Amino acid sequence: MDREAPFGAELASPPEEDPPLDPAIEGAEGGPGFEGVLDSDRSHRVVWSLAWPVIVTMLSESLVGLVDMLMVSRLGSQSVAAVGVGAQVLGGVSVTMTAIATGTLALVARMVGARRPREAERVLGQSITGAIVLALVAVVPVVALARPLVHAFGTEEAVADLGAAFVRIVMLSIPASSVIFVVASALRGAGDTRTPLLVGLVVNALNVVGNWLFIFGHAGFPAMGVRGSALATTVAFGTGMLLALGLLARGGLRLRLRAEDLPPQPAVLRRVLGIGTPAALEQLLMQVGFFVYLTFASRYGTDALAAYFIGVRILAISFLPGFGFAAAAAALVGQSLGAGSTAAAERAGWLATWMAVALMSATGVVAYVFAEPIARLFSDHPPVVEATVSFIHMLAIAQPLMAIDFTLGGALRGAGDTRFPLVTVLVAFYGCRLGYAWMVSSVLGLGLAWLWSSLLGDYVARVALKAWRFRGGAWKSIRV
Q: Which of 95, 179, 207, 333 has minimal CB crowding within 10 Å?
């Protein structure tokens, strides 16, 4: 294997045409095949080699979020709440891209496993086109309705004004971030998790520098406050999109962007959306659920809202192994199924899951122990610190459950089984988390810590449902 190739190439190394398959993939000429690779001493290394670049990518994004929040926190709690609510609106729009990204990853992984690289590249081109069109359609109404959307979170008037200004600017980043999202999903499905890491590091570095320049007005730029944070995001993603497209167009990666693959091909787009739409609906329902959850938190005041947004940014770091191993599981499961090895697909899913549990449990312990000093980095206001510590403790306890939920969810999506995770959101998030949150906040009138504890019931239900589904094996026969 070429040592300069991206990690995971033992399981994915698509050629330009269709020469004889690599023995490590198909088992030809005495090679181990997918099952042999995942049964061998290399199995943990293969999973880790796919997971760590995703973890580092997400870590850099989380650190940027922390730096952004630290800078914005110097502007006051209203600015923190405004950017936090604005980020929720941004997340709600971004989930529409999940329909394309999830379908892209599943199809590319299958095609790479089946040794059909040109079909994988055609999916890449169509997904980029679809992402741009969908992003433009989504951005316009959100910009027009920015203030009502922010105010719907139950914010104060001043927070609504700041949040709306943030949203109007940051929405301009959606087309570029959508292209990056889709490109990263395609490359990860092909076994290349290093190139998305490179693009992500560039985007995040530019975001930090832009925050410093635009929020506070350094180097001759005007001090723009929360608007500066939004502008930094937009500039960074625009630059990252140009970098990603340039790397794909020049060749040398596992996939190549070709001009002939960009004009719309409805049949390919329907196939991508057919797989990815349930995943987008799942994420959309979760965003709606987060909105409802925030309305419950807003009943406890602006300090509680600020604590929630700070806590999510801090604990996002502990989630990173889950994202990384979910990506590894999705790629390995999809490629194994494409190569015709359901046994290897199942082993890859479980192996990635237990590796994620080990790492996320460890990060949960660290977060629990150091919750208070971490919270004090973001606020010296005692009520905010107290509420943030309580939230961090609850999320830290939930880390092992989150690891299983993230990774098995990734494995199911890699197989093209995107409908069942949608069901788990309705049962676990809406039934357990929101039902419980409504009870403690609106009926029983209990304290904020009781509201935070609703997360545990949510993730217990998710784990039970997804483990049952993956163990049952119905995903092995899904056609994409």
A: 95
User: Is residue 38 predicted with pLDDT exceeding 70?
Assistant: no
Name the residue type at position 403.
Answer: A
3-state secondary structure of 405: helix
pLDDT band at 299 (very low <50, low <70, confident <90, very high): confident
Q: Are 280 and 219 in contact (CB under 8 A)?
A: no
> Which range (35-49, 244-258, 268-282) has the least confidence?
35-49
- What CA–CA distance (Å, rounded) separates 194 from 279? 24
Q: In the chain, what are the domain boundaries?
A: 34-477
Residues in the chain: 480
pLDDT band of residue 6 (cuts 50, 70, 90) is very low
Rg (CA), the chain: 22
Residue 7 has pLDDT above 70, yes or no: no
Contact between residue 360 and residue 400 where contact means Cβ atoms under 8 Å apart: yes
One DSSP character per residue, 268-322 reads HHHHHHHHHHHHHHHHHHHHHHHHHHHHHHHTT-HHHHHHHHHHHHHHGGGGHHH
- Closest Cα to residue 183, out of 122, 137, 248? 248
